[in-house]
Amino acid sequence: MARYDRAITVFSPDGHLFQVEYALEAVRKGNAAVGVRGTDTVVLGVEKKSAAKLQDSRSVRKIVNLDNHIALACAGLKADARVLINRARIECQSHRLTVEDPVTVEYITRYIAGLQQKYTQSGGVRPFGLSTLIIGFDPYTGVPSLYQTDPSGTFSAWKANATGRNSNSIREFLEKNYKETSGQETIKLAIRALLEVVESGGKNIEVAVMTKDQGLRQLEESEIDGIVAEIEAEKAAAEAAKKGPARDA
Amino acid sequence: MKLDTTGLESALPLFGANCQMVDGFTAAPAFELPTTLDFDGFQKEAIQMVKPAKGTTTLAFIFKEGVMVAADSRASMGGYISSQSVKKIIEINPYMLGTMAGGAADCQFWHRNLGIKCRLHELANKRRISVTGASKLLANILYSYRGMGLSVGTMIAGWDETGPGLYYVDSEGGRLKGPRFSVGSGSPYAYGVLDSGYRYDMSIEEAAELARRAIYHATFRDGASGGVASVYHVGPNGWKKLSGDDVGELHYKYYPVTPSTVEQEMVEVSAA
């Protein structure tokens, strides 16, 4: 098997592209990222490793704008992310220039995925080691969307998804608890999902909310702390309710 | 229309030319320059050789019920009328029309090419391209051939999500958005009739009659325009051809022959 992971342009005998699978490993080691789509809001949440004391935390924003109405979060190699994000941003503007209209979320996702795929079928380069979560609103219909791409270059739309560390646990949680939400409820669902695998606290999570009218808004640490407190209170109340009737009986 | 990305890319030079593929349908095909000592002179000659006077009359205007598009059908080569039945309104797709003025081959080819690009856009993006987008695609292509002798003066008319749209695009690379346009050697005459008779809230019949009359008057005074006045209407459900009248017959419709009293009559002079 080891012989088939040098030049990525070859398949292994049992049909694997090992470089792509190794790239997925790199993604699995990256920070957890979660995305949730509501009826009028889309939320991205990313695990933030505690910043070194001397580091300026503002320079390590994990959730970025691709255009006024599209944002992206990713898990995996951050340097690869920077290159991909730059290309995507240029494509967003190039599209505005050539057809005088903003890109749709699907278009830019397809572009990013196409780029990721190109690097799995060329000589001398390695795939991008990141999966992205792309959120945005359709500029014409105002419908919110959430898409995910991965190093192999596939993409699909999701109601809610997670990538990076422990993404399986987060996805399980989302599958059990997902329902159509809007506004604040969507934000709470995203944070609850992220709290499954991350130490609770505003300084360990970065959350950004996108609405049709206001674009992308990064939540302040204090706001996140407030919502986390709400969630903890709800959890405690649910626990108490479970124990309550049993005691009476 | 490639933006200059040299400042941002670093890992890409490995397959530099492939960058074009990424942005597939906006890269215009390029060809080698001719080997000549005086390229500017050559360019001028080429332009003079193919520079027709755009002998034609086409017009289009937006009104309450959509876009009205009309054109004559004469093709002339100098003083020779080569055809009286040229289709100058080109059907790009069921909801967009283009008009032809200038080189017939250039207009036909590039409009067909535009139709292909519009269809590809639809397939890739699962929605129709806007009139803005289509006209911009054509304008960018024509701009990249600027100075190479293309002669195209066209109007792109259509109906998209934002309502009726009308753009003027030419081979110099110009692109204008507007409510009324007329292109060709007969356009001054057409403008005269069109501008004085135009109202935004006309019915479809009134607008068609205005367009027909404007084309007729242009063919009356301009020698390079004639043949048949075709009138098309673009509405929310696409375009529809409304009429195609021979301008000779239109003349007698507008100015019917009236019997006039004879003042002097020639009589046989009796042999004196």
Automatic annotation (TrEMBL), chain A:
Listed InterPro entries: Ntn_hydrolases_N, Proteasome_alpha, Proteasome_alpha-type, Proteasome_asu_N, Proteasome_sua/b
PROSITE patterns tied to this protein: PROTEASOME_ALPHA_1, PROTEASOME_ALPHA_2
Q: Subcellular localization, per the record? A: Cytoplasm; Nucleus
Q: Recite the UniProt keywords alphabetically.
A: Cytoplasm, Nucleus, Proteasome
Oligomer and partners = The 20S proteasome core is composed of 28 subunits that are arranged in four stacked rings, resulting in a barrel-shaped structure. The two end rings are each formed by seven alpha subunits, and the two central rings are each formed by seven beta subunits.
Provide an example Pfam family for this protein.
Answer: Proteasome
| Record family assignment | Belongs to the peptidase T1A family.
Its taxonomic path starts at:
Eukaryota, Viridiplantae, Streptophyta, Embryophyta, Tracheophyta
Domain (Proteasome alpha-type subunits): give its ranges: 4-26
What's its job?
Answer: The proteasome is a multicatalytic proteinase complex which is characterized by its ability to cleave peptides with Arg, Phe, Tyr, Leu, and Glu adjacent to the leaving group at neutral or slightly basic pH.
Q: Its principal location?
A: cytoplasm
Q: Does the keyword Cytoplasm apply?
A: yes
Q: Biological process GO terms, please?
A: ubiquitin-dependent protein catabolic process
**Name of this chain's protein:** Proteasome subunit alpha type
A cellular component annotation (GO) from this entry: cytoplasm
UniProtKB/TrEMBL annotation, chain B:
Can you cite an annotated GO cellular component? cytoplasm
Q: Which UniProt keywords apply?
A: Cytoplasm, Hydrolase, Nucleus, Protease, Proteasome, Threonine protease, Zymogen
Q: Which PROSITE patterns match?
A: PROTEASOME_BETA_1 (PS00854), PROTEASOME_BETA_2 (PS51476)
In this entry, which stretches build a coiled coil? none
Q: Which GO terms describe its molecular function?
A: threonine-type endopeptidase activity
- One Pfam family cited in the UniProt record for this chain: Proteasome
Its source organism is Linum trigynum
Official protein name in the record: Proteasome subunit beta
Its taxonomic path starts at:
Eukaryota, Viridiplantae, Streptophyta, Embryophyta, Tracheophyta
